[in-house]
Write a structure and sequence with these properties.
With 760 residues, the chain is of the alpha+beta class. Helix content is 45%, strand content 12%. It is built from 28 helices and 22 strands. The strands form six sheets. The protein has a seven-stranded mixed sheet. Strand 10 and strand 11 form a beta hairpin. The chain starts with a strand and ends in an 8-residue tail after the last helix.
Length: 760
């Protein structure tokens, strides 16, 4: 019997050279079995090899842990036909060694191929050990600050300002750092500089007589602010955030202090040299951008970037270049995604909404959509039609239009609205399973009498001029309309900017997200009256709860990415429109979208849209717990974060519901909603100390913020305060790091027992 013990009792190799001693093998097996019962070894196999290399005795011991069996794979399988040499070994892995540190029953053997790949990144014991030390340290840093925003609706100036001031966090930090050492006016100046460095520097240059002195003071102030906001991150993470051209200099300034006598002259020379080499402007801009970036660790957009406001494309430009963000698709986002996928009904809806709010900037300037064919068609078709009810809502328009332009937009608005009704009817006829035949409303118009007949009741029409509608076949597109639809379709499908933004939405977006025990989705999870999940049939199969949102997510991606002409593609294209206005769609969840009624009928009752049961049941804590459980958002600090329905603060409505289980954070970024909400948006902030809601007042303008230092006035409400500060180890990222640490520890063992060679 040969017996060899490796250092630190990690592994033993045992071989029997005489096949005539089966009794000895069995006795040794008994010893190993006892060790196994004590959970001291992972797995083993004892092999007795005869002198002729064919006679074998084998003792394989069952282990209590299922995973342990994998370790036996280290000994190559033996059979009657294979020769076995004297170098065959038994591998016994111990658990009570501190250096191994794995849970009982865990084996490195099943992960050997993965560990070999991992060794390419960490080729030595020293490399693996260093990474373990680094990751363990990161786990014990405070969690990064998360910001949650929703229903931005194209209000790019307010959105960008909220990002720049980190929902008031930058101002709070400036107050904390400088306290009474700076006047309020000076602190305001510093904050404005951090928000808009390029523009503010130009204003300072115009008024400052001693610019070098201003540079010197400002640079020192910015270094202090930057040191503060970077303090909760590793040097490595900060370094990766630095602009390449100033990386070394900023690192030196962040991690040294002029208070130290040996460093005083060193720091002063760095700053003075920055000024003397005429690099102060660029350096200040770089520092300000770094402060903005580090103050918000991650950004969550809970839906509805598009529609109403003038600059959805500008918001998308900002997001596509943002350091860490995600999007939970809203109903308006889906509409644009459908348009970009080539769904003509979605395209018509997108254009109609833009006309309704006098917002042509996103279409024309943002995405280069050619609206000239629509304008020409509208002028010809509705030349003598006042189109009164299609006048855009100019109080929310992106610019001031002259009377002639306004008249044209009004005509275009009516033209695309009628086309939309016709295109939607085509989908409804094609997909009877959608159950939306009651939304084919043009056929219910009595054209001779100018009335709308619905469910036996007559309603007077506000507009009776329908030159493109054939009463005998009301949903047939005229030749001119069909040609127009094709031209607009081509324009949408060939917009490179739109393609770029859609790819961003698909890459960083989804129907929902579970992040750090919080469940994020824009609108609803359809429910029955009794609170159970509503079963929704899609192509003959039922989906509910999480499965429904997963299926919707998959279909939306199919609509955009699948091959043209495929049956799955065609259904998905229709379904993406259904997501916009379908009764059982999680992003709509109402009995109808009363577009026709709001335009053509005075009766307010018929215009009402009945919301699904979710919107009342979500006020119950047990319902929220049920939904959280369905999506795997577990833990004492789990919440649902919703948007979609504006919180009417002006009427006393609160954003926190279900005893703190659900937050509705649509506070009215969109100017169109602000008369209802009484405020101008919310930001939910989740940092290491807990959760707080920041309530914003209307944003004046970027220009006033720069010139007059007018910040968004925000009010903070503490929603949840943690008695113990949350660390990285308490987050989803922390769980990932723990897994990485475990893998690296396995790699260390593999190196030390000789399963993998170091690559020195």
């Amino acid at each position: 019997m040969g017996f060899h013990l490796f250092d630190q009792s990690v592994v033993q190799h045992v071989a029997f050279g005489d096949g005539q001693q089966p009794l000895l093998v069995e006795q040794f097996g008994i010893v190993l079995r006892k060790l196994a019962q004590q959970n001291r070894i992972i797995a083993f196999e004892v092999v007795a090899v005869g002198r002729d290399h064919k006679q074998q005795h084998r003792v394989a011991l069952d282990m209590a842990q299922e995973a342990c069996a994998q370790a036996a794979a280290l000994v190559r399988p033996l059979d009657d036909t294979r020769n076995v040499g004297h170098d065959e070994r038994l591998v016994v892995t111990y658990l009570d060694n501190a250096e191994v540190g794995f849970e009982r029953g865990e084996s490195i053997v099943g992960d050997l191929r993965y560990l070999q790949l991992l060794s390419r990144s960490f080729p030595t014991i020293a490399d693996a050990s260093t990474e373990i030390i680094n990751l363990e340290a990161i786990l014990n840093l405070p969690k990064g600050t998360e910001h949650f925003l929703t229903d931005i609706h194209g209000e790019y100036e307010a959105f960008q300002h909220v990002l720049k001031n980190a929902s008031g966090a930058v101002k709070r930090k400036v107050n904390e750092i400088f306290g009474n050492t700076l006047r309020e006016a000076e602190k305001k100046e510093l904050c404005t500089l951090i928000y808009y460095p390029e523009e503010k520097i130009q204003l300072v240059k115009a008024r400052e007589k001693d610019l070098d002195d201003w540079y010197l003071i400002t640079l020192n102030q910015l270094v202090k602010v930057c040191q503060n906001v970077s303090s909760k991150y590793t040097r490595s993470k900060v370094r990766k955030s630095l602009p390449a051209e100033f990386s070394y200099i900023i690192q030196e300034l962040l991690h040294e202090t002029s208070v130290e006598p040996n460093k005083h002259a060193y720091i002063n020379v760095i700053i003075s040299t920055i000024i003397s080499t005429k690099r102060a402007d660029d350096f200040i801009i770089a520092m300000c951008n770094l402060i903005q970036r580090l103050t918000i660790d991650s950004l969550h957009i809970v839906g509805d970037i598009y529609d109403r406001g003038p600059g959805a494309h500008i918001i998308m430009d900002t997001l596509c270049n943002y350091h860490n963000f995600d999007i939970q698709w809203g109903n308006h986002d889906i509409l644009w995604m459908g348009a970009a996928s080539g769904n003509d009904s979605c395209i018509a809806n997108v254009i109609r909404m833009s006309m309704r709010y006098g917002n042509l900037g996103t279409l024309e300037d943002g995405y280069g959509i050619n609206l000239l064919p629509l304008a020409t068609f509208a002028m010809d078709t509705y030349a003598d039609d006042p189109c009164t009810i299609f006048m855009p809502k100019m109080n929310f328009a992106d610019t001031n239009y002259n009377e002639k332009t306004l008249r044209l937009i009004t005509q275009m608005h009516k033209a695309i609205t009628i086309i939309q009704f016709k295109l939607e009817a085509e989908i409804i006829d094609r997909r009877p399973e959608f159950g939306m035949s009651n939304r084919k409303l043009l056929e219910k118009i009595d054209f001779e009498r100018g009335v709308f007949v619905y469910e036996g009741k007559e309603y007077a029409l506000r507009d009776t001029n329908f030159p493109t509608v054939d009463p005998a076949d009301p949903y047939r597109l005229t030749d001119e309309e069909r040609e127009l639809v094709e031209k607009i379709h081509y324009s949408f499908m060939n917009s490179e900017k739109l393609k770029k933004h859609m790819r961003c939405l698909f890459t960083y977006g989804g129907m929902y997200l579970v992040s750090n025990s919080n469940l994020l989705y824009h609108a609803s999870v359809p429910l029955n009256e009794d609170g159970s999940f509503k079963h929704v049939k899609i192509r003959g199969k039922e989906y509910w709860g999480r499965k429904l949102l997963d299926k919707a997510d998959q279909l939306i991606r199919t609509a955009y990415f699948d091959e043209e002409g495929e049956d799955d593609k065609e259904f998905a294209m229709d379904y993406i429109w259904y997501m916009w206005c379908g009764p059982e769609a999680p992003l709509f969840d109402k009995d109808k979208m009363a577009t026709f009624e709001r335009y053509f009928l005075e009766d307010k009752e018929i215009q009402k849209e009945k919301k699904g049961y979710y919107y009342t049941l979500r006020n119950r804590e047990d319902i929220c717990d049920q939904i959280l459980d369905e999506f795997g958002a577990l833990g004492p600090h789990s919440h649902i974060i919703n948007g979609h329905v504006p919180v009417k603060t002006i009427q006393g409505e609160q954003p926190m519901k279900a005893n703190g289980k659900l937050f509705v954070i649509d506070g009215g970024f969109s100017k169109a909603y602000q008369p209802e909400t009484g405020i101008a948006g919310y930001t939910l902030v989740y940092h290491s100390h807990g959760m707080q809601l920041v309530q914003h007042e209307p944003f004046q303008s970027r220009q006033k913020a720069i010139e007059e230092g007018l910040d968004i006035k925000s009010t903070n409400f503490v929603l949840e305060f943690n008695s113990q500060r949350m660390m990285v180890k308490d987050t989803d990222k922390g769980k990932e790091l723990v897994t990485q640490i475990q893998d690296l520890k396995k790699l260390l063992v593999a190196y030390r027992i000789g399963l993998i060679k170091e690559k020195v």
